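// run 5 | inverse folding | seed 20
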């Protein structure tokens, strides 16, 4: 499932392709691609895309009317502008007045579109973005302070921080030398500050490499990311740690495969 760096890459790639294009029609081939908690998707007709950005793990299409479209790609969702050929997994199509199209392709049908009136972050119920300037070390420490869950599990809870998934939680904890099973509230003040810094550093680097293609992820250009070549622990169970050569371990936390170095992470 695309995480913050992948969604950021997709949003940046889409922005220059769909900005200021007016929607002439919307065609829904798979009705469940529309999240019914939103307002009617037909309200998009006649509206203009004024911005494309990332919010947590969502691609947000901001519209001239003030509405927004929140797109969660889930496992296999892709956004393709003016595809050269028909896509057999097309679930939704935006047709533009200039004749172009934005196609939502989703082989496994888990992705969702939601049309939102008002503030999308409030409607989606997600927490603060890791790159939000308001997220200081002290604010981050306050979010963690009373949480008894394992720190890896806490990082995946989108109600606190938005955008972090399994790959970058594992990588950031390795960079900060913190074991995934540590209780969140057991982290010292310096460890909390180091973890926030590590999250930002790892994800900035991943964005520079256009994300990690460890499964089906392709960016808005249809190209894979490159950061998977630099992953320190994720997906490397049994392989030697790049730092100390100890074999990387894999455990399951909150039903997610979790990778760490038993020597480097205490």
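// decoded
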């Amino acid at each position: 499932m695309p995480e913050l760096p992948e969604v950021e890459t997709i949003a940046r790639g889409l922005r220059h392709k769909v900005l200021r294009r007016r929607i002439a029609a919307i065609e829904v081939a798979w009705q469940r691609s529309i999240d019914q908690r939103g307002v009617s998707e037909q309200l998009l007709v006649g509206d203009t895309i004024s911005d494309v950005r990332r919010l947590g793990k969502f691609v947000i299409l901001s519209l001239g009317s003030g509405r927004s479209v929140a797109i969660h790609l889930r496992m296999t969702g892709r956004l393709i502008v003016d595809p050269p050929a028909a896509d057999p997994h097309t679930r939704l199509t935006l047709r533009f007045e200039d004749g172009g199209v934005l196609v939502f392709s989703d082989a496994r049908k888990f992705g969702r579109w939601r049309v939102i009136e008002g503030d999308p972050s409030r409607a989606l119920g997600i927490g603060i973005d890791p790159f939000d300037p308001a997220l200081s070390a002290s604010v981050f420490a306050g979010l963690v302070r009373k949480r008894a869950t394992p720190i890896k599990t806490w990082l995946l809870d989108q109600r606190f921080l938005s955008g972090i998934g399994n790959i970058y939680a594992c990588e950031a904890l390795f960079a900060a030398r913190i074991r995934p099973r540590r209780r969140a509230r057991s982290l010292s003040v310096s460890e909390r500050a180091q973890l926030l810094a590590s999250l930002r550093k790892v994800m900035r680097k991943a964005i520079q490499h256009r994300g990690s293609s460890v499964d089906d992820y392709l960016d808005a250009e249809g190209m894979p990311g490159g950061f998977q070549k630099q992953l320190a622990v994720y997906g490397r169970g049994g392989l030697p740690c790049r730092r100390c050569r100890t074999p990387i371990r894999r455990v399951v936390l909150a039903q997610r495969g979790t990778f760490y170095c038993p020597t480097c992470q205490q």
